[in-house]
Write a structure and sequence with these properties.
Helix content: 55-70%
Strand order of the largest sheet: 2-3-1-4-5
Distance between the termini: 8 Å
CATH superfamily: P-loop containing nucleotide triphosphate hydrolases
CATH class: Alpha Beta
Strand content: 5-15%
CATH architecture: 3-Layer(aba) Sandwich
Radius of gyration: 17 Å
Number of helices: 8
Order of helices and strands: EHEHHHEHEHHEH
């Protein structure tokens, strides 16, 4: 199976490139935000537990998030693989994901890091905020989100480099060229 972790700052194009990867390789997409919203909407036991944390303004514990991801991962019968979007965000989560996949005889095939200059991220996110009306896409909030992202990301990049799964992708420029670079990275690890 082809299991991909896609990484990138807010506005780096993860969603767009994830769609392209899903279409080309026929794998499933797990966005942690989408998964959490679905679990809560469907009133599952995991969703109710997650909602309790969210309603109190707390982060969902890693163990619960892994349980939710494992449940979704296991629901994909006859899957060719999965792209994990928005997870992991910390080394502890990366280790938990590795353990969850190992228990299923799987592993992360590649970690794709979409790297985009900060000024371009700011431009993209402010435009997205104007186009979509997303309240969190304003300059002050974006700067905070990018600072948090960068503080969490550096250790994860080093962790995936040690695992031999890290691939840096220049996420700035032509969409087709970016996707071609992603395909090259995938081809280098695909069995």
């Amino acid at each position: 199976m082809l299991n991909i972790v896609i990484f990138g700052a807010p506005g780096s194009g993860k969603g767009t490139q994830s769609e392209n990867i899903v279409k080309k390789y026929g794998i499933n997409h797990i966005s942690t935000g989408d998964v959490l919203r679905a679990e809560i909407k469907n009133g599952t036991a995991l969703g109710k537990t997650a909602k309790g944390y969210i309603d109190q303004g707390q982060l969902i514990p890693d163990e619960l998030m892994i349980d939710i991801l494992a449940s979704v991962f296991d629901s994909f019968k006859e899957s060719k693989g999965v792209i994990f979007d928005g997870f992991p965000r910390t080394i502890a989560q990366a280790e938990a994901l590795k353990n969850m996949l190992t228990e299923r005889g799987q592993g992360v095939s590649v970690m794709l890091d979409l790297e985009v200059p900060e000024d371009e991220l700011m431009t993209r996110l402010i435009k997205r905020g104007k186009d979509s009306g997303r309240a969190d896409d304003n300059e002050t909030t974006i700067k905070k989100r990018l600072a948090v992202y960068h503080s969490q990301t550096s250790p994860l990049i080093d962790w995936y480099k040690k695992e031999g799964q890290y691939h840096r992708i220049n996420g700035f420029g032509e969409l087709d060229r970016i996707f071609a670079d992603i395909c090259t990275a995938i081809a280098s690890v695909k069995k």
